[in-house]
Structure formats: C-alpha cells, structure tokens
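#lab-general

N.A. 3:47 PM
ok so I finally got the sequence cleaned up, no stray characters, all 559 residues accounted for. can someone with queue access submit it? mine expired

B.Y. 3:52 PM
send it over

N.A. 3:53 PM
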Amino acid sequence: LKMSWFCFYLPLHLLTVACLCHSIKVPTTSSQLSFKTDLFNFYHSLILADGKETTIHLLKDIPKRYYFVLEEGRALAPFTITVTPCDVPIEWSILVHKASASFLGKAARGDHGTQEVSKSQKAPNMVSTIFNYKGNSVETYMGMSSHSALYMLEFLSTERDTHITVYLTTDTTSGNLYPELPMDPRIDVIGIGYTTVTLTWKHSPSVLQHRENIQYCLLVNEKHNYKSLCAAETAIRSSGMKLPSTLALSLSPYLLEPQQVMILSNSELSIINKGSSGEVRQICMGTKNTYTVSNLSPSTQYYFDVFVVNLLTNASTAYTGTFARTLEEPEPKVMELKDGKVIQVVLDGKKQKFYSLQYQARHKKIQFTFQLCRGQVRVHITKNSRTVASENISGLRYFSLKGKLLDTYLVQLRSTEESNSSVKVQVSPHFHKPLFPLLPESLKIKSFSKLRTCNSVTIAWLGTQEQSKYCVYKKRIEADQVWMELQSADRCSGPESRHKSEKVLCKYFFDINLQRAVTTETIKGLDAGTLYLFDIYLFGPSGIPVRYHSKVVKTRKKC
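B.Y. 4:20 PM
back already:
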C-alpha cells in the first residue's frame, strides 16, 4: 500500500517530503500500523534546514519535533547533527523510519549528560530511536545511512522555557560550520597576581588553516563557566545585562547599551557588561593564544572561558573552561601622622579600600583638619579602637577631640566614588595657629547676568571677618570642555598650577559685619560670545590657599 493518502494531505511547503512518501512502503500488519501516527507527527513537525544553524525555542514540558530526509540513491550518505543548549539541560532524541536493513551510526560523547545509541536492526520498515541525550553540553551525533530514511528530532525542556541551536549537515566534504578544537582543549593558568591572571591554550586547527577568518574570544565572570557562547549570552541577559549578539565578538558594528563599556586597543576588543549579578567581560584578541587579564580584584575567584569564533558565520566552539583566584593583597602599611605636617592622600576608587593613618597624641586636645581636593571621601576616626567620628566630608572639615596623653588615633580614608579621590590631612595641638584660613559661609562665586557685556562680566563672592588675600583667575574654554573642567578641578591646588596670563588681580578685604563681608569685581577685556572659567583663591596667615567653586560665565554675543 503506497502512502499516497498521507502525501495528499501535505501542504505545499512540505512537498519535499512527498517524494520520500512515494518511495516508502508501509506494511499493513498490526505491528506496523502505529507508524501512521508517527507520520502524522511528522506532518505536524517542521523541516530542519540542511547546512544552516537553526535557533529553536522550547516551552516547558511541550515537546517540539523537526525532521529531515536522506534521499534515495546516495550510498552510505553521512550526516552530522549538533545541538547546543543555551540555558538549562534538555532532552533530545533522533527517531528514524527506514525501509532498508542496514544502518550505521555513532555519537560523539560530551563531557556530561546521558546518551543511548541503538545498534543496527535488521527489521525492515521499522521506526526506532537511534539516539537519546539529556544534559546541557554541546552534543554532536554522526551517522551514516545506506538507503532513504525519514528522521525526526524531538526536543523537550522540563525545567523552564528555553532555546537551543541545531545544526544539520549532509555535506561532510566542505568542512564544518564550527571551528575545530585541539586534541587538548583545556585552558592553562600560567600566572596569578593580585589583579592579573595569565592564561594560555593550544591553537585551534581552524586558526592554523584559516587565520584571517578565525579569532579567539575570552569571557571572564565571577559565577561559573559556560559550555557555549549562547549559554553565556542567555545567562548574562537573564541577570539584567544587555549583551550584544555574537556579532559583537566578530567585531561587527552594533550599538552599545548604557550598562556596557567598549575598549578597543592594540587590535583587542573588550566589552564590559555591568549588571546586578556582577561584571562580565568579553575580550577578543585575534589569534593570540596567550593572554593576561588585568584590572581584577584581589582575593577573588574568576571563571575563564575561551571561544574560537568563525568571523564569517559567527559560529563558535568552546574550550574547556577554567577558574583561578587572584592573590590576597597584603594589608596596607599604616602611615604615621606628625604634628603640624600636611600630607595629601590619593584614594583608589576602584578598590574601595580604607587608607590608614595613625597618630599618637602628645597633648590632651588635638584637631584633625581635612581638605577635600577631588571626588568624595569617607573619614572614620577611632581613639584606642573606639569610634569618635565617621562621616563623608566636603570642602574643609575640622574635628576637635579631647583625650589623654599617648592616646592612639587611627584615621581611615576611603573614596566613595568609582573614580579616584584625594584629600589633604593635618593633625595639630595648636588651635591658636590654624593652618587653613577662616572660611566664609559659602565658597560659591556669583555672576550678574544683567551686568554682562560683550567684553566684561561682574562677579561677587563672600569674605570673612579676618583680613585675607583673594586672587582672581580666568581661563577661556570651549563649550565641550565645561564638564571636564568642573569635574577634574583639584580644589587643593593653588595659583602655582595656573599660567601667569590667567591671573586677573589680587585684593585684600574683610568686614566685622558678616552681612557686609562681600565684594564684587568687574573683569574687562574679554571677547564677545565667549565662555570663561573664573577661580578665586583665598589665602590665610599660613599661606595655604583655599579655592572657591569654579564659575563659568559667557559674555554677550551682541551688544
């Protein structure tokens, strides 16, 4: 009995299987009638493309079926099927209906999971499962058939919705879609430092044969290793990060998301993805097989995965991942503070560690002075291991403390920003000889919009009840320099860091009545429609300056 009844119901887009239906005879014995049901399942499946990687989305507990045909007339037709789970473990199997008595097949075993392969059976017209696998490793099945056969692939996810990629090819002569791995696909750790790890791996045969089309890409994270690139991308996306597609690894153009940073230097592409679950780095380094990962955190375990990527197809193959723990950084030495001496400390924002200063009191009353130079700084002071002060500082801050002779004070400083911060520190028992000048209520500079002209601006600032010296400086800037000038300003630097041509004037003034301790100055000789950055430095008796907050003013374009 020909299977014309089944072919009659096939839609037009499945006509490719109609030819096979006419070449397969189905017996009418009761033991084989159930195959009609299997063919009905094939009808409701999808054709698997030959020679193309297919992405398949699976819903939890709902099997999905695809099929393909090995045509008649091809003696010992070989084929391979590669399935890559992109998230959770899945179950998948290969079923075959064959009219022949000869079938040969073998499976390339993976590192994990379970698999079963049926031996050739000499029962004609039989539907059988020839391969079954459960796990999340990349698995490849290699088979060979001597006669026409209809194959069905069934996929099932029992944990959650997920997706996989499937690659079928019947052309084994033109090379594999996926780059090859060496005989030993392990990644070796050959060097570990406080913030660096050096890795090496054996070259892929694909790199040696097609160097211009192949490159290595490294993935670094703090959670675990990944068995495939699509598994890594899925995990990163699910953690809240926006990861570009594999095209990013092949250096194709794409738009970076806000939580991504791209660094391109020395022909290396680095993509840093930041999310709630930590930082993940992608580094593509061409065909180099030794690489040092830098800017890591001390005493932290990192996982490293190397993928060899085909730049023409974006197909990739994973080496066996490894992990390493960076060395623990030694405790920083505690610096001794001396009476009256000013030190400036630069704090690393990335490490977020405390910088420690120690002072042994030679007087019962002492005063700590902190001048914030750049960024934001947290100050923590203990006396004999008990906390006496802890706060974020801004501008100039004094802490006056009482205790006993030989009390031990420990000052700990930490940057509260990711960028570097700096602060000046002084401890002194001499309250009557302050190092820094008496400060006004505000260090802001005010400008008067109505008094602006094409070649002059008028500014004002507050003074104090103490006779002090004030020096005004100006600098011509462009519009795109404003943000950088304001953010990078070192509030501890004095006029010695400025060019002589930027100095406008110096003046002395004070007023016993703080309500009247204000002065104005009109700066002339400016260019029309131009931005200027104004700074004022206040000098006290010790000569150490305090810088007012910079002010940007633009002269009128037309008058």
